[in-house]
Amino acid sequence: MTTFMLKRGQEIEIRLVSAFKIAKVRQAVKAKFVEEHGESNPPTYTATLGGGPGIVTWEEVHEYTKDNIAEGSEEDQAAWKEYLRLQLLLGQKTWAKTAEVYLYRGVAECVPDDDSWIREQEEDGIEVPTSLREQRIHWIKTELLMDPAELVSLITVIQGRGQEVERAATVAAGMFQREVGQ
């Protein structure tokens, strides 16, 4: 059993979530995003290469990068800004959906049977979703977790990375002890 200690001192049971499932979720988010916004690619420019007396020249198409976009036209720079905006939006949508899956599938803690927490939140002016899936995720975010940092820590452990960090720390401590001992 894998557990996670909440900031409030309560220990909850968690389950690892398949990396394959998360990859499929990411693919689905991107497919829906492309359907809604079109494919998002950086603007390109054509470079003439080679040249000189008797030397063949050719052209290649290259994508602008953050390092060379300043050399592009105003139109290219505007296209770059739009590209970055769409990349940021895709990243936000991907994070939101994968976080939702990690919470829904990875937290074993059960939503309380009584709905007093719902009444309490509604009295506070908080709109509580009606879908059971969305309600469960909402409950985890608003009743179990204290802040975004705790959310990220929880997801890191659900991903199985918490154990990797612990192993790395143990290995580093062992190396340090060996070096100090020598």
Describe this structure in words.
It is built from six helices and four strands. With 182 residues, the protein is of the alpha+beta class. It has a domain at 2-39 and 74-109 and 147-181. Strands 1-2 form a two-stranded antiparallel sheet. The longest helix is centred in the middle third of the chain and has 33 residues, at 74-106. It is elongated, with a radius of gyration of 25 Å. The two termini are 38 Å apart. The model has no long low-confidence stretch (mean pLDDT 90).
Shape: elongated
Please state the structural category. Answer: alpha+beta
Rounded to the nearest angstrom, the distance between the terminal CA atoms is 38 Å
Q: Helicity, in percent?
A: 55-70%
Number of strands: 4
> Major beta sheet, specifics?
2 strands, antiparallel
- The amount of beta strand, in percent, is 5-15%
List the uncertain runs: none
Order of helices and strands: EEHEEHHHHH
Secondary structure topology:
Blueprint: E1 2-5, E2 11-14, H1 19-37, E3 44-50, E4 57-63, H2 74-106, H3 116-123, H4 132-144, H5 148-158, H6 161-181
Antiparallel strand pairs: 1-2, 3-4
